[in-house]
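Input/output pair, single chain:
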Amino acid sequence: MIFLKVSEKEAVRLIVILVISKIFFWDINRFVYYSASAAWINAVLTTAFTALLFLILKYAYSKNNCADVFDCIKTAYGKTGLIIAGTLLFIMQILNFTVVLRIYSNTISTITLTSMPSYFVLIFILITVIAAGYYGIENLIKLTSVSCWVIVAFITALFLFDIPHFDFTNIFPVFGNGLSGFLKCYKNVGFYNELLFLLFLVPLLKERKNFGKIGFKSIAYSGIIIILTALVYTLTSPYPANTQFYLPVLEISSEVNISVIFQRAESIFLILWIFTCFIYLGASFCFMLYTFEKTFGIKDKKAIIGAVLIISVTLLDLFENINEANPLYRFMFYAFAVSLFVFFTLTFFISAHRRKKEK
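Output:
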């Protein structure tokens, strides 16, 4: 039973944080890889292309009057189709949750808590995930609504502190690898995969008609942060040297040295990393439980929290370190993009057609 409703602003803040969490991984290098010194332009084109794909998705969704996205799947493919699609979505989510959990826990252990066993960090993260699963996505969103401003403030501070280290010659040639690189911007739409969770949020929204507005605002706000990150990264780290860094934002923060009191900005990176870690994994876990609940019709999703965590922790043994987790992380990047912008768009069109045919 839903006790809390989510406002437009709260939904936007959640999606923005989930999307921009990728800037703290190596994903910014995707833009650098395709467009070199024009990475920020590739980010602009990626954001614009994502907005276009979402426009199509929104149009398809507007043709339906489903209770939620799983109702649309059931209408389009029947009960058996719902179970198959829901199971695949659940598998995708649990694999993504597991690989991101490994990346977060190992990175925190490696960068700051070097003297502490990595499983201590893992246990601490799992405790926060359990809390998120128990209290529900509604309460997590309320917390996220406040945290969003803290995260944005720290990112802004990091960019401002880096201004003295800008080298504007790094953006030349202006168009980087040229048209061939820009045309590959479609490969980066996975940066906005977390728009998938907006589909799950629809039943919680105070006004469902704001679905499209929330999506476009989320793309615009997160896009600004992603574009600025790509630009600052290019201005502080020249191509091709910047292709070698695994954590671009950490590299940006390491450039800061403005006073005796505030000599290094890695602490800002750590705060941002921890904030996004708890929010991303907590939200992902809640949506994973929701997927299982709607797919198999269970009445109490809290009852499966333990089982899902056991599966996730067991799967962690597949990845001893970040390097082993990266291939799956890259695969899920594309898999979620296809499911969001292809599968669900087609599903909404098929669902609308069948409802119209039944009438």
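The chain is about 70% helix and 0% strand. The mean pLDDT is 88.
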